[in-house]
Specification:
Blueprint (H helix, E strand, L loop, with lengths): L4 E10 L6 E11 L4 E5 L6 H8 L7 E6 L2 E2 L5 H11 E5 L10 H11 L4 H14 L15 H13 L5 E5 L7 H16 L3 E6 L2 H4 L4 E6 L2 E7 L8
Helix pairs in contact: 3-4, 3-5, 4-5, 5-6
Bound molecules: adenosine-5'-triphosphate and magnesium ion.
The site of adenosine-5'-triphosphate has 13 residues, from strand 2 and helix 1.
Length: about 230
């Protein structure tokens, strides 16, 4: 059986000749359930492009991509949206929370879309915010929270639907060292609980939290290594 993620020879070209940019140049990759993968590489190397394809936000120009056994290139926009809302959680550099909206309302949004009833929604939302250490900030709006706290709200929102995979694009890119360490501690905890995480980062120190580190350069994977150094097993 293949993993949750199975990509073969992904090519992504933006624009038209002669102004085209080859953002991904034959990327092949397998990720299994329970892995914590960091993708590193210089600016413009294709990290976000790869995440958009793996996260079913965009389709490759060519190549084959299977998410959870389904051939992504064959899916309609509707089916794509359904996969994203049911099986994928996203965490972004700039948090992407609704302003003037409480933590509870931000986190429960995916459950509203999924049609979960009010009582159940509230129960799960409070639990998710507790898991990221924000039980005392349920009614706070993003403006009343620190960057690290805002990112924890975003993580709770990404996890609320119990997704198969969490994709994080520079989740600590906007945070100080202490908040970054807190976010990584949360990711590691969720990974120990069996969740699959794919995280993009510029920073080698942040990548070290993952159990596998993939480096891309000029749209190609140039290294893919197990990171045994920091893997702590209970
Ligand atoms: N929508 C787009 N249209 C045209 N070119 C694009 C588009 N998105 C990305 N590119 C180009 O594709 C290449 C890869 O971009 P990508 O955003 O994937 O890089 P990245 O590794 O995420 O960089 P960063 O670390 O700066 O976020 C870059 O040369 C970029 O300019
Ligand atoms: Mg990027």
């Amino acid at each position: 059986m293949s993993g949750i993620i199975s990509a073969k020879n992904l090519i992504k070209i933006y624009g038209e000749s002669p102004n085209e940019t080859v953002a991904l140049n034959k990327v092949s990759l397998e990720v299994k359930k329970g892995e914590f993968v960091a993708i590193i590489g210089p600016s413009g190397s294709g990290k976000s492009t790869l995440m958009h394809i793996l996260g079913c936000l965009d389709k490759p120009t060519s190549g084959e991509y299977l998410f959870d056994g389904k051939l992504a290139s064959k899916l309609s926009d509707n089916e794509f949206a359904k996969i994203r809302s049911q099986k994928i959680g996203f965490v972004f550099q700039f948090f992407n929370l609704l302003p003037r909206t409480t933590s509870i309302k931000n986190v429960q949004l995916p459950l509203v879309y999924a049609g979960v009833g009010k009582q159940e929604r509230l129960k799960r939302t409070i639990q998710a915010l507790k898991e990221v250490g924000l039980s005392d900030k349920l009614e706070s709006t993003p403006a009343q929270l620190s960057g690290g706290q805002q990112q924890r709200v975003a993580i709770a929102r990404a996890l609320i639907n119990n997704p198969l995979v969490i994709f994080a694009d520079e989740p600590t890119g906007n945070l100080d060292t202490k908040s970054s360490a807190e976010i990584m501690a949360i990711f590691k905890k969720f990974n120990r609980e069996g969740r699959t995480i794919i995280m993009i980062t510029h920073e080698a120190d942040i990548a070290k939290n993952a159990s596998r580190i993939i480096t891309i350069r000029d749209g190609q994977i140039v290294s893919d290594k197990k990171n045994r150094s920091t893997r702590i097993r209970a």
